[in-house]
Amino acid sequence: MHIEKVTNFKTLLLIKPQWDSLNIADKNICYLCYDWFYSSCKILDQDKELYVLLVKENNKILAIAPFLKKKIYSIPYTIITFINNAYTPYQDFIIPNRKIECLRAIANFLKKEAKFFTYLELNEIRKDLGNMQLFLKILKQEGFFVFETPKEGCYYLKTTISFEKVLKNLKSHTRKEFKRKMNRLTRLGTVDLKTITNPDEIKQHLDKFFNFYKRTWKGAEPHPEFYYHLTDVLYSKYKVILFVLTLNGEPIAYLFSILNDNTLLGIKTTYNPSYYAFSPGIVLFYKTIETACNDSNIKVFELGRGGERFKKEWTSLAYEHVILEIAPKNSANRLYWLSKYQLMPMIRKNDFMYNLYRRAKKLLFTQKSVINKTVSSHTREQKFLLTLNLEKWSYAQPTSREETEIRLATKNDIYQLAVAMEARSIKEVEERLKKDKCIAFFESHKLISCFWFSTKVEKGEELAFISDYKVTYNYDPSVLAEIISNMIYFLKSVHIKYLKILADYNIANVLKNVGFQTKHEGELL
Fold it and tell me: Which CATH superfamily, name and number, covers 2-150+323-329?
């Protein structure tokens, strides 16, 4: 039995069949399959080098340690690690048989191969998988430093019982809250859960998925190509499932998942932030768990790592995760361990010493970077204050089509207003409606635009000030101008003499074309 290193992708490709055969014979975890590892290395872990260890006997691969390595800072310190990114919940060795022998061979190799400034940092390790417990025992026997740090694990829910029993196991308050959110969303229309398994159809929906994701507080997804690639390469081995929560047939929330044997893995979720006040993510999981409980092929639903509140509301079951730091016992590593786990805690407790440490670290390791600033006199985010004398204004007669309606919003419109304004809660809209008035523009009874305004008297004349609005942007400029002219005619009908509006770049251009004057520093393009 001996160890071979794989340090280039050409050699890695040659062992793809054996890799997947070993994984299937072991635990058949999709996070450990060849395609997941290869995709992660090429897309997500580009800052690391291949350092895959193969345990071989008589030219046959018995086990795989899917390692990578990287150097830190500007000193010759090398870290050996598994793939470590936000997309991979956990990692492990691939060892179907003869586990103790293979793990001991890996430990002995690392002991001989490791230089002074080398250690292992194995992140997101699931202790229940078994291999790591044996490995730690062997490492301690072979004279390694081992330090273990607990982490928030991956919550999971057993779906072998009926959905009614799952609900019954929840706290009474939680159960009522889930049903309240379900009922509130259904007031907007028909709510349904669609399940998509066709790769081409999934990829079509991923465009909208990442558009939703970009509009949430998380911002743009840095590596959307990872999910497109997984949809293609995992299709033949595992079942990629996209759960789609729809409202009146339109997607408002997504869950990208993989069915791994009898376990449904929740990989990534997002929602349309316009429906934030209606908790579409909560409703999505409610519907998905109901579907999983009714599917005999699904025994466990992994909700993903992290301790978000909604996961803990559904279940208290979680796989225990740890970070393992491992190093051979030599003078360099002994110094590192002493400084990290004994000296640094003492320094952090002393303000003077900690400030001194931070300054030294900044001088040693901070690289100067040149920030290129692109300066533009006007950006798409800039606001423009525009004014209009309504008595002197004349642009176009208001629309008289039967399917359109413009009026002041009432309490009956609160749910549609919450969606249009991407409100954080229904109460927020209720309070706003008490304080300000809102001109609502409907088409076939659906709210497509709204303008919030307050009024005050200036120089004996009533003035309306619009500081907040939502306009459907997929209309062409002529239709947008029509909406705005209708809004202005409505204000004239309720005896408003002057109008001020704080507009963004797109709306400001339309407003200027229908007779508004710019009142701000700079020129309107």
Answer: Gcn5-related N-acetyltransferase (GNAT) (3.40.630.30)
